[in-house]
Amino acid sequence: MKVSEFGERALVELARRTFKRGPRIKVGIGDDAAAIDIDGRYLIVTTDMLVAGTHFPHGTTAKQMGIKAVIVNLSDIAAMGAAPLALIFSVGLPRELDVDFVRRMIRSMDVTARRYGAYVVGGDLDETDDITIAGAAFGLAKKGQLLTRSGAKPGNVIAVTGQLGAASAGLKILLERLPPKGYEKLIKAQLEPIARVREGMLLAKNGARAAIDLTDGLAANLWQVSRMSKAKLIIDRYKVPIHPLVNKLSERHGFDVEEFAFFSGEDFEMLFTLRRDIWEKVRRALKRIGTDATAIGYVSKGRGVYIQKHGTLEKLPDRGYEHFK
Known about the structure:
Layout lengths: L2 H4 L1 H11 L6 E3 L6 E5 L2 E11 L10 H18 L3 E11 L5 H17 L3 E9 L4 E11 L14 E5 L4 H10 L8 H8 L5 H9 L4 E4 L4 H12 L2 E5 L7 H10 L3 H7 L6 E5 L4 H10 L4 E8 L3 E6 L2 E4 L10
Parallel strand pairs: 4-5, 9-12
Antiparallel strand pairs: 1-2, 2-3, 3-6, 4-6, 7-10, 7-11, 8-10, 9-11, 12-13
């Protein structure tokens, strides 16, 4: 069987079954990041790779490459509720690439990392045909304040930060060369995303226990939480906060708005669950730091992910962005 038939998720599961978990490993393969017990606190470690042509649409600037390289890694740290510490990068560059492009890219990495209280502390350089950036991020979390994909419990509220669909709609505009006027915010969401680091730390401190960053699409990420938590997740289609410009773009060009909001990735928002009795307190706390959060459903006993539409309940397809497929 070829990798294209097997798929990214199956490969991750293969790795999870293959690699042994040591006594200090609190969270291993299969979550947003690993958690290693270091004398009463958790060292959070993650890695992400970006390749020109796959992750950087044509025309992406050096500054935007630097931003995204940092954000994809810090977003995983945020999803664990951890405070960022540092990043390292292994960077592959074509030999004919202008040095000034590299200078602007690494300056952007530095500025973006420091914006979140982290520092780039090292890495490696190599020669490649296309720009390739493999990063690793490190953070710290307190015991009892760790967010994981396996923490959802029956009765929990399911919620998301922000609005969904913007990044994939922005990518659609770029790839199909649609008129960008009026949709600049969608394009920025794709090329210059943000990491919900403060939000993750706030959630962990205030009683949330399950979280995941929305990188593969809402549907796929809900299924990941459902499988890891061994729980049934039920959401209301009309409570999901979709970016208004995504609705406008879809109406104008005849696109399916649900493809952007449910089945495409890179929103880098937080999907989380928490007890119903603390939901309002946490929502208000997020609002105080400038972040809107919306309750979109609840956790129940059972398995799978379901969506309510017009009073009917149906299974939400387990579909989203997946490498190799």
